[in-house]
Design brief:
two-stranded antiparallel sheet; alpha/beta; binds manganese (II) ion
């Protein structure tokens, strides 16, 4: 008998349940949390539906909506041109499709973030993880789990802001630089509203994940959920941002394939 093709094996695995699909995407609605910048900066829009017709005089047999949304609303993909450091690099429609299906590793800092909402992942944390699990995957995603997805119920809990600004976990400046410039991954995925820590507006450079990753032609994925279900290594992420021509990012359906029961 000939060897089954790789795609036939994939389909058989999906059918038998030996390969599972995990939805890493936060549902999009008008209550999906969005980032809030201090004045005088412009603000992103929340997601909004505008009904065109619903089996009524405006369209007796059909239901449909227009929608309004920021590019960076909900689970979304940051393209390199999102930041000034990557302004001449790819827009979201130009990201090569072979970057949209890639291996992923998950580093779990839930305990640290529960203890300290301003927790910052350091290069040494990543190197300690690599000592246990092997090197970060070339061409893959570094996904940082912090348990923050449980807070996405309300904007207030998700942004966790006080008079000094938001308090949410992220990467240190040096770790952001290292992931962008020295590690083999194509991007960073997080559970928070953006790839940078809540306090990153005061870092040098400000918003170092955005600054270094976009400047290196790398990507961001935000507001991921269900990272708890993924193994530390071996998952495959399918990230599908809308191909908004000239866009700086887009809401994305993000799925992971995992092996095992
Ligand atoms: Mn973004």
């Amino acid at each position: 008998m000939p060897e089954p093709s790789v795609l036939a094996s994939l389909v058989a695995g999906l059918h038998s349940g030996s390969i599972r699909i995990v939805d890493l995407t936060s549902p999009l609605s008008s209550s999906t949390p969005v980032i809030q910048l201090p004045p005088p900066f412009g603000q992103t829009a929340v997601f909004e539906l505008e009904e065109i017709s619903r089996y009524d005089d405006r369209g007796p047999a059909w239901y449909w909506n227009n929608f309004r949304s920021g590019e960076h609303t909900g689970t979304h993909f940051d393209a390199p041109n999102h930041w000034v450091t990557g302004k001449d690099l790819d827009d979201v429609a130009s990201v090569p499709v072979d970057r949209l299906i890639a291996p992923a590793v998950v580093l779990d800092f839930t305990a640290e973030a529960a203890e300290d909402p301003d927790f910052l992942v350091q290069v040494d944390h990543v190197k300690a993880w690599e000592a246990d699990h092997g090197p970060l995957p070339p061409g893959g995603w570094l996904l940082v789990r912090t348990g923050w997805d449980a807070r996405s119920i309300t904007q207030e809990a998700f942004l966790n802001a006080d008079e000094h600004g938001p308090h949410t976990p992220g990467l240190s400046v040096e770790c952001a630089r290292w992931v962008a410039e020295e590690s083999p991954v194509i991007g960073l995925g997080v559970e928070t509203v953006g790839t940078d820590a809540g306090r990153a507006h005061s870092f040098d450079p400000a918003f170092p994940c955005h600054s270094y990753l976009m400047g290196s032609g790398k990507y961001g994925l935000t507001q991921l959920r269900n990272l708890a279900v993924l193994p530390p290594t071996g998952a495959v992420v399918i990230a599908g941002p809308l191909p908004i021509v000239t866009g700086s990012g887009a809401p994305a359906r993000v799925l992971a394939l995992v092996e095992g029961p």
